[in-house]
Specification:
Blueprint (H helix, E strand, L loop, with lengths): L1 H24 L14 H6 L7 E8 L2 E5 L2 H9 L1 H4 L8 H5 L7 E8 L2 E5 L2 H9 L1 H15 L8
Antiparallel strand pairs: 1-2, 3-4
Length: 153
């Protein structure tokens, strides 16, 4: 019995640690939802942010994505890396400065088949001023902060 309880305790600690690590690497809400519930495929197919529905979901890299249609869900499942946002869904400009900021789903841009999200529309304008340089710097910084809890940045 004691061995069983130890096993359960170790499994619970491992699971809690894995969940916390996924939350640090991906910008998820308290329910594990990515991009504040917006459909990442719609950014590419419709060119506008569209709120997803809980009827159409897919899990990828520790986050749950919502979709506005079964077709968008199917497209994502077939190729999640094509649609998943850059930098785990954190603000692209925040990553440029070594931080993990929240996002506004209405502050976004697709560049070279990658979805970039920003904190807000003001940050989006700032990010656009030197977009290529900001992407280059963020691409270089992201691997060094990806697994660091956002509170420690």
């Amino acid at each position: 019995m004691v061995q069983f309880l130890r096993s359960v305790l170790v499994a619970a600690i491992f699971w809690t640690g894995a969940a916390a690590q996924a939350a640090d690497e991906m910008n998820v809400d308290g329910k594990g939802i990515m991009v504040k519930g917006y459909d990442v495929v719609a950014y590419f197919s419709e060119g506008v942010p569209v709120r997803g529905m809980p009827d159409y979901t897919a899990d990828h890299d520790g986050g749950t994505y919502l979709f506005s249609s079964a077709e968008n869900q199917k497209l994502f499942v077939a190729d999640p890396s094509r649609y998943a946002p850059a930098y785990g869904g954190f603000c692209s400009y925040g990553v440029r400065v070594g931080k993990k900021f929240e996002i506004d789903p209405h502050a976004w841009k697709i560049v070279g088949d990658r979805l970039f999200l920003q904190l807000d529309r003001g940050t989006h304008k700032l990010w656009l001023e030197d977009m290529e340089k900001n992407i280059s710097i963020s691409d270089r910084i992201w691997p060094s902060i990806q697994t660091t809890p956002r509170k420690m940045l």
